[in-house]
Specification:
86 residues, alpha/beta, three-stranded parallel beta sheet, 5 strands, globular
């Protein structure tokens, strides 16, 4: 099992994903050793608050990268789930 921890969850675990923004506002995500995620169970720790729309897009980018590399099972731990009240 591999834990991927976003910087906004640094109070829980040591972050090992790098998330940043380009000058035009686009997000970029770096997952070190992405190839090690092949055929592994992955747990992602990422808070979706604040900036719910941006962080939701970041989560989707991370999920897409892990699926394309062939991760076996992916679990996202998101303490705040935006749009759940609608």
């Amino acid at each position: 099992m591999i834990k991927l921890v976003a910087p906004n969850c640094s109070d829980l675990f040591e972050p090992n994903i790098q998330i940043g923004n380009f000058p035009d506002g686009d997000s970029h995500i770096t997952i070190p050793n992405l190839e090690k995620c092949r055929k592994q169970e992955i747990i992602i720790y990422l808070r979706l608050y604040p900036e719910q729309n941006t962080n939701l897009a970041v989560l989707l980018f991370i999920l897409d990268s892990l699926k394309s590399v062939g991760a076996e099972k992916i679990t996202a731990v998101c303490p705040y789930l935006p749009y759940a009240r609608q």
